[in-house]
Specification:
- Helix 2 packs across helix 6, helix 3 runs parallel beside helix 6 and helix 9 packs across helix 12.
- This protein has 15 helices and five strands.
- About 50% of the residues lie in helices and about 10% in strands.
- With about 325 residues, it is an alpha+beta fold.
- The protein has a five-stranded mixed beta sheet.
């Protein structure tokens, strides 16, 4: 369907270099995932790439998150666990339920409808939910229908072929319809206590450290914004749905500033890139937003007491 070359091209098209996604784990938000998928879809000429990727995906691809969900005693409890843990993977998303004609409709809200490529995320999610249902209801199970936002209306025939069921439309959400009694379906694998993952386990298992302060939250924003090449205070404030002055004021209350946090974060990431990759000092400086390599060298030496080259050579 796609090649590594296509993926690299798509990454470059949204200004992300695969080789510079290094260092600590980085959360890539859904809006960036949507833009990446849209770039790849245009590259390969496939409007419904999100749905096709979902068709080839499995719920178990979600690692520890899927362990937490798939060890639930019933399908209904599995859906509930998935909804509770969703913010661990994708902050800002939510799940809701609707009832119609004896069916329960499980709906996913990405909250990124205005982003180019959002339809790929919405078309992917029903396939993931169908695979979850099959873990409890059998490999041949299908929902009564799939629901999608109406921006997929033009491709209804292709989508119904991919899902294997009718497609209906509603504003702002994607999901599946199943019978109410399906929720009581027991876990066919039973409950293995030594594999049980509880909600409190997930952040550590997924490598996501819950922010303990507002400063920590700002650093987490910087952690994925640096991949997108924008670590400005304006963008950080927008990500947190705050005004710039409010963000700065809250940081002052914690005895720091955005400038100090950003500098410490960039230097820490520079240290990781220097010791964990073979990129040049110039490439690392560019990836961190420095237009002048000498400015980066001065900042790094001030922080660590060594030049970037000497630091990389010692690889502490």
């Amino acid at each position: 369907m796609t090649s590594c070359g296509d993926v690299d091209w798509a990454l470059r098209s949204i200004d992300v270099d695969r080789q510079l996604i290094a260092g600590p784990p980085v959360f890539l938000p859904l809006d960036s995932t949507a833009r990446l998928t849209e770039a790849l879809a245009r590259r390969v000429g496939e409007r419904h790439l999100g749905a096709l990727i979902g068709q080839r995906s499995e719920y178990t691809d979600l690692s520890w998150y899927s362990d937490f969900v798939l060890t639930a005693p019933t399908l209904g409890e599995a859906f509930q666990r998935g909804a509770k843990a969703l913010p661990t993977l994708h902050p800002g998303c939510r799940v809701s339920l609707d009832a119609r004609d004896g069916y329960l409709i499980l709906l996913f809200h990405s909250e990124i409808q205005s982003v180019v490529g959002a339809h790929h995320i919405d078309e992917f999610m029903p396939m993931l939910l169908i695979d979850l249902g099959r873990r409890f209801l059998g490999a041949g199970w299908l929902p009564a229908w799939v629901e999608l936002p109406d921006y997929s209306l033009n491709g209804i025939g292709a989508l119904e072929e991919i899902y294997g069921v009718p497609v209906m439309f509603r504003p702002g959400a994607a999901g599946i319809a199943l019978k109410l009694e399906d929720l009581a379906a027991p876990n066919p694998g039973g409950i293995v206590v030594d594999r049980e993952v509880v909600l409190r386990d997930l952040p550590g298992l997924l490598g996501v450290e819950p922010p303990r302060s507002f400063s920590d939250l700002v650093v987490e924003v910087l952690r994925f914004q640096v991949i997108l090449g924008d670590v400005s205070v304006e963008t950080a404030a927008e990500r947190l749905s705050l005004g710039v002055q409010t963000l700065q004021r809250r940081l002052r209350h914690e005895g720091t500033s955005f400038r100090d946090l950003r500098l410490e974060f960039l230097m820490s990431r520079a240290a990781d890139l220097l010791t964990q990759t073979d990129h040049s000092v110039e490439a690392i400086a560019r990836s961190l937003g420095y237009n002048e390599t000498n400015s980066f060298r001065r900042a790094f030496r001030t922080r660590f007491g060594l030049t970037p080259t000497a630091f990389a050579r010692n690889r502490p």
